[in-house]
Specification:
single chain, about 675 residues, alpha/beta, Rossmann fold, nine-stranded mixed β-sheet, five-stranded parallel β-sheet, 16 strands, globular, glycosyltransferase
């Protein structure tokens, strides 16, 4: 509808001239009618007739002229009637156009009204309305309207009622705090529900800011937990590069929010809003405004100072608001310092029931610093610079921030879909083996997941025809669409291979050349496409494009989201760096009925992995039993010569649930339950 409106034709304004006005114009300038001559069929004209009757009497002549004049006026009147008829038709057409324009304007006004209602809060789901209430409660306690204790009780009340809150509270933005507070106090309590209140203190979140895998993880697991009845909120730094257009109802909390840093209190500006139904708080330092107003998120010499400030400010904000979450969920080294801060300085400020969970995406990123820097956020360096606390295991003169997070957390989740706890402890600990060994009972391994709402071939709006495991006809349609869009031969017998890389993986160009040249002898079409707007693979792909010239090779060097979805749906095979789902490429491929095949395939290594790592998840077990031992040429051979066997593989893959809502969410809930019961 928008396109039709946007392409509407501008019709010039036309006016009907009133009759009185037409009379005036006629009186000013009369039309002179030239003498008419009627040619007869033989070519004679009226003057010849006049010559023939020249000898008759004047009476006959006058009668003849009168009859001729009558005929002329008759023709003139008929012409006038035709003109009037045409004018009526023209006016009717103008009327119809005006009516259409009126309807168009009415529709535009309606769209503007809906947009206004959207921004004002109309039509929001229950979860978004619940978060509006919770964030208003934060504002009330920050302005000393209610006590932290009452704020905590009101939050619990909203959490219990979040499924029916839209029926109770209306027009939240239009009401004063006092009015909302009265309604909250009148709301009767109902039966308790065993649900957790989780606060993420982190540095990334999709779609606001995304640099690594943590961004999709925070959003994915938060949405999954909320779909299962838990309440989740996220605290982030207010970076200059934040995509604030994605925040619903963003507003500044007009209240003092101080945090301790470098020996004194410093003010912060706090912003709140909702993203994907998740309450989001953004903390913006006032005195240290340069900490997060930079081009990059990470990579500065003062990163520890930046993120330790943010971690302390987040804890101070939680205390000031009177929040009493069940779990503070922190991530990687950047917010691992929350553990020591919480247990040494914060816990006795009303958070005795709160527990700390640390997630590690990459154990190799640890952050080593001089011990005296711990004093910046209020910690005691002498107390913490010990071997059983923050002292680094190798560089003993330094403190290890990630190690401190492991020591001071109640639970640690290591994100790895393809490695067991045993393998991580003994092969992938990056110098933390002794620390992880001591705290082994805290460790939980969890698989990565996929956003099944955004990536679902049965509902994907980017596809020309949707499909699922029970009806695969739409996949063939998607294949033809990819071929047509990229100028490839539209032949169903061609095997379509998508080659998708992101900025976090290096392309082995020489290996890729060998794979491509080897398989171009077969009936194969290969599409190279970037997986991210920030892809750094383009340079390697450009080099590859210059060297490989073939009508069955296509390169898409600019990010195209629609084509990316279509490539996952239409391809038979997706080439990827590895089967590790941290990049989500293999997960998306399986979801869309496409085989994820590793470029640098090593069957011997895969067999070793299967035999030595039995404590793996459903994803690892499945990928190893289906595509783990298949190279590209073997996959092409099976598609060509054993299509029924290949179809069984693909349909089995599509029926698996590797989303955040599956095994990953269950493991997180179990971890929260375990540490809450400590």
């Amino acid at each position: 509808m928008g396109t039709l409106i946007g392409s509407g034709i501008e019709v010039p304004s036309l006016r009907r001239i009133p009759a009185s006005r037409r009379t005036t114009i006629s009186s000013r300038k009369r039309i002179t009618v030239l003498p008419l001559r009627c040619l007869r069929s033989n070519g004679d004209d009226d003057r010849q007739d006049e010559q023939r009757i020249g000898g008759t009497n004047n009476v006959d002549k006058m009668q003849y002229q009168g009859a001729k004049q009558h005929d002329i006026w008759k023709l003139f009147k008929e012409a006038q009637q035709n003109i009037l008829c045409l004018n009526k038709q023209r006016l009717a057409a103008i009327e119809e156009l005006n009516k259409t324009n009126t309807e168009k304007q009415s529709l535009l006004n309606r769209i503007e009204k809906l947009e206004a209602e959207k921004h004002a809060g109309a039509g929001k789901d229950n979860l978004s309305i619940s978060w509006e209430l919770l964030l208003r409660i934060d504002s009330m306690v920050l302005t000393n309207m209610i006590s932290p204790g009452e704020a905590s009780e009101l939050r619990r009340l909203v959490i219990k009622h979040k499924l029916s809150v839209a029926d109770v509270f209306t027009d939240i933005p239009g009401k004063r705090d006092s009015e909302l507070l009265e309604e909250l106090r009148e709301l009767s309590d109902i039966s308790k529900k065993n649900a957790f209140h989780i606060v993420h203190i982190c540095t990334e979140m999709d779609p606001l800011v995304s640099k690594g895998s943590i961004a999709s993880y925070v959003t994915g697991i938060s949405c999954a937990l909320q779909r299962k009845g838990h309440l989740v909120e996220v605290i982030l730094p207010k970076y200059a590069c934040l995509n604030l257009d994605e925040v619903q109802g963003l507003h500044e909390v007009k209240a003092e929010a101080y945090s301790y840093f470098n020996g004194q209190l410093h003010g912060n500006r706090v912003w709140t809003g909702v993203v994907y139904g998740i309450g989001v708080t953004l903390i913006e330092p006032l005195q240290y405004s340069s900490l997060f107003s930079r081009e990059m998120i990470y990579g500065y010499p003062d990163d520890f100072e930046r993120f330790s400030y943010f971690s302390r400010a987040s804890l101070d904000y939680i205390v000031k608001c009177g929040k009493k979450p069940d779990v503070l969920h922190v991530h990687n080294w950047e917010t691992a310092i929350v553990g020591p801060l919480f247990w040494d300085l914060i816990v006795e400020q009303g958070l005795e029931g709160t527990r700390i969970l640390l997630t590690c995406q990459d154990l190799s990123m640890q952050c080593l610093e001089q011990p005296d820097k711990l004093a910046l956020c209020g910690l005691d360096p002498a107390r913490l610079h010990r071997s059983d606390r923050l002292q680094d295991n190798s560089s003993t003169h330094l403190v290890n921030i990630l190690k401190g997070g492991i020591v001071y957390s109640n639970g640690v989740i290591i994100m790895s879909s393809i490695h067991s706890k045993h393998r991580i402890l003994h092969s992938s600990s990056h110098g933390l083996e002794s620390t992880l060994g001591v705290h082994r009972d805290k460790l939980v391994i969890a698989p990565h997941g996929l956003d099944k709402l955004q990536w679902d071939p049965s509902t994907d709006c980017f596809l020309p025809e949707n499909f699922n495991a029970e009806n695969m006809e739409g996949k063939a349609v998607c294949k033809v669409e990819v071929q047509q869009r990229l100028g490839l031969s539209k032949d169903a017998s061609n095997i379509l291979v998508g080659c998708i890389f992101s900025e976090r993986g290096d392309i082995d160009v020489n290996k890729l050349k060998d794979v491509v040249r080897k398989n171009m002898e077969f009936n194969v079409q290969i599409v190279f496409i970037g997986n991210s707007e920030r892809s750094i693979s383009n340079q390697a792909l450009e080099s590859l494009q210059k060297e490989l010239k073939n009508d069955n090779l296509k390169f898409v060097l600019t990010y195209d989201e629609a084509l990316l979805h279509l490539t996952f749906a239409g391809s038979d095979i997706i080439l990827c760096h590895s089967h590790d789902p941290v990049e989500e490429v293999p997960l998306k491929a399986l979801r869309y009925g496409t085989a994820p095949i590793v470029v640098d395939h090593d069957a011997a290594a895969n067999r070793h992995f299967i035999n030595r790592d039995p404590e793996t998840f459903k994803y690892s077990q499945f990928i190893n039993s289906t595509f783990g031992n298949i190279s590209l040429d073997l996959a092409i051979d099976e598609i060509s010569n054993s299509p029924s066997k290949w179809e069984r593989r693909i349909k089995e893959a599509m029926r698996q649930d590797f989303s955040w809502d599956g095994e990953c969410c269950d493991i997180h809930v179990s971890a929260y339950t375990a540490i809450k019961n400590l």
